[in-house]
Specification:
The chain is mainly beta. The protein has three helices and 19 strands.
């Protein structure tokens, strides 16, 4: 009996150690410029970090730090000073997530789950999940963030505003729509340059470039006249349209937020991503 109890304790201890090891580290940069670093913690049956409007951090020298979200300017997962173009593209207000590949996406911070997963709501109202290991920073108060990082440059190239510079978007094949962070108006011309390969099914040969896979017939696709797996777009809630690898400027069919996706009706078995450069003409 004694041996069995010791074994059970060892198993529980190993399980607890494994759960803690999954937690990522972060720095909360507060709106007054103060920085607090520690381990991202989670509580409750939903394994949430944000509870009753408060973010939580194990700073390692006493009780957990619990701070109202409105007092946090940035949740920083990588440290260091952001590049000027990262700070320059921030909008005057609102939330922005910046991934480690440089992609910036406006939207709304929802929560951090299990100490290692960011839950994000894009401007199309769709929820997305990012592994924290793929995230640089989450900006919760952009004005205070610029002050904390001593940024004095212009913000004219803010995410979601007009401009000629191209933005590269990673369009995950297992996600319904990826927010480009770009607002367009009906009739405005946008240039796309897409590359990469995705897998849209587990069967052999179920791969495609942004032009799609014309050898496989599928019904119920978002864009009926485009091959399965092709790169497609949508503006707001308007009907989706095909894009592929063509690089001629496309006139936008509606006004609103530009979203990108893949032409498939079942996304759970997909993998890979397209890399898409997007530029207003």
């Amino acid at each position: 009996m004694k041996q069995r109890v010791i074994s059970t304790i060892a198993i529980v201890a190993c399980t607890a150690l494994y759960a803690f090891a999954a937690n990522e580290r972060a720095t909360f940069i507060l709106t007054d410029g103060e920085r607090k670093s520690g381990t991202v913690v989670f509580h409750g049956s939903q394994n949430e970090n944000l509870i009753n409007g408060h973010l939580n951090l194990d700073v390692g020298n006493g009780p957990e730090l619990t701070v109202p979200m409105e007092q946090v300017a940035v949740i920083d997962f990588v440290g260091g000073q952001p590049q000027g173009d990262e700070l320059g593209q921030l909008p005057p207000s609102g939330h922005v997530v910046v991934l480690r590949d440089g992609t910036a996406q406006p939207g709304r911070f929802v929560n951090i789950i299990g100490g290692d997963t960011l839950v994000w709501e894009n401007q199309g109202g769709q929820r997305q999940q990012y592994a924290i290991r793929d995230v640089k920073r989450v900006y919760l108060n952009t004005a205070s963030a610029r002050t904390a990082f001593n940024y004095t440059g212009s913000a004219t190239n803010a995410v979601g505003t007009s401009g000629q510079a191209a933005r590269t978007i990673q369009v995950a094949a297992n996600q319904a729509w990826t927010d480009t962070g770009i607002d367009v108006t009906q009739g405005e011309h946008v240039v796309f340059e897409a590359s990469g390969q995705i897998t849209w099914d587990q069967q052999a040969g179920a791969t495609s470039t942004p032009d799609g896979n014309g050898t496989q017939a599928r019904t119920g696709l978002p864009v009926a006249n485009a091959p399965v797996g092709a790169l497609i777009g949508r503006v707001g809630n308007a009907a989706p349209f095909g894009i592929g690898t063509q690089t001629q400027p496309l006139a936008m069919p509606a006004s609103g937020r530009l979203m990108l996706g893949v032409n498939d009706s079942v996304l759970t078995d997909n993998s890979g991503a397209f890399s898409v450069s997007v530029r207003k003409q």
